[in-house]
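QA checklist item 7 of 12: single-chain prediction sanity check.
[x] sequence parsed
[x] length recorded as 572
[x] structure emitted
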Amino acid sequence: MGGGRVLSPVLLVGAGAGEATCGILYLASYLRRGGIEAFVRLWDGDETEAEVVRSFERLVTRVRPKLIGISLKWFHHVDRALLIARTVRKIDPGIRIVVGGNSASYWWRELHAYDCIDDVVLGDGEVPLLAICQGDSAPPNCVTRAPDGRPRRLPLAYVQGAKNTEDIYYSHFNELFLSQIDQHSFSGWVAPGKGCGENCLYCGGARGNQKAAFGRAKPFLRSEESVRRDHQEIAGRTWQMRYDFAGSTAEFLGSTWAGVDLSRHLCTYFLWGVPRLELVAALAETFQRIHMVIDIGCFSEQQRLEQMGRGLLKPCAKDRELLDVIEACRRHPNLDVEISGIGGLPFASKATLAEELRLVERVISLDCVVGYQRLESQPGALVTEHPARFDMVSEARTFTEFLDYFERREPGDVSVPMIRFRDAELEAAVQRNSDRVDALAWEHRDAKRNLVVNGRTRLRNTAPWTQQFALGDWLGSHRAPAKVAQEQVTVVRSVDGTTLSCAPSVSPRRFSDPTLAQGEDGAILLAALAAFEHPTTVASAVSQLGAKARLDPGSAREVIDHLMDGRFLQPA
């Protein structure tokens, strides 16, 4: 390996706004252990093209990367991945631009046609990306350019499995991040395993595409030692752990938690089916609070069984099995359950719609949150590729159609192309049912969060974490100019992970950043939190804010309501 120009430093970014996928952290850790100076930009709040350009001008100036890797895991980020690639190419044509991830692997032909992309990494990326950085002329799993400019696809020689993942784990978290806001944006994702052995008709990451893009048709658990190293590396740096792999057992996870105290951590677990009760108990015993999301495919048992019988859906529980698990979960006071399903799947009828609504109402009556969405188009999914088989129509199927859809979206629009029934009457009935389920679900969510308060209600600041940073450390030297770099920012995290960043001494006229509550606004928020440092009535806090922050009673109540909504304040 090697022989060419070593590419270091390296900057890895996500293609979407918000927190990037945890994949870039595994990649950066692996590169660091391979001698490459790798950095991650984990959090991205840019909305407009101009903001993207400004951000990357600053990032390139700070890091001076020889290579920028763009993680294109989710298909609805394809337009932003191309925008980032074009932007970097204009800023510095000498930077090598590499894209990878599930969607990049699926669309490698189309992406490689863009001259702003040098390489596409197919499937698992650790060994291929390190090979590129070390100057290997034939890195495995890569689509590179031949001398005549045509794409050259190299074999999928690197396929991760249970026997070769001992060297894939989190490390170097003190060196990877470019700012404290990046490090504290990490939500604690850990991957117990990888892959999927099912062929659900709606999923672009099903078994067939896993085989084509990653070279494996079966999921696998990573080595216990590597997952244990993940927990050891991040437990002191994150407030929760998040998992989304169905094959984990209580015994496996218990061994990976060994020696790590998670008793004050939260846990969010996305399950692709009904969990075993031993796993439920292990989570409840290990974490302070658990939010468990159980995916049942759809809320109509008849539809569920029909699709399972045709091999179009992963194994899912019958309603009775689901209700039994919910009842078992309710025995653990620190565990809440969300039941997730998709509306508008094939084989819908008047009977299945009524059945769907009944189960939703039953689940809500048990105080479980309902996660619900209409069937969306996913590249490579069976129902997207062949909607006519199910008498349906997809709003996007080809790369060009998906790209056009996302390029037309306004900033802040998170819609995706949908799949709808060709029969107008059936489509209208499905949409009415969907609207009704949405209304019920959000009404229940709001009821769980809302608290009716009056002047006598006693509240307390329950934020479990408050720290101060220099603004230059919090935002990073590439975002905070020298004139304000030493100003203090107070960062407060609520019990649900919502973060407030308050910089009272930084006037928006001197410097402005959308992530900060600045000047008087920041001072008011901190004053309101301080008023509830000990159990205090709302009326007393309103009086304090009037005296100390010169707020009228109505404005003071608005601030208190805002902090309650974010769960910074809770009943004493």
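[x] summary fact logged: The first strand starts at residue 10 and ends at 14.
[ ] second reviewer sign-off
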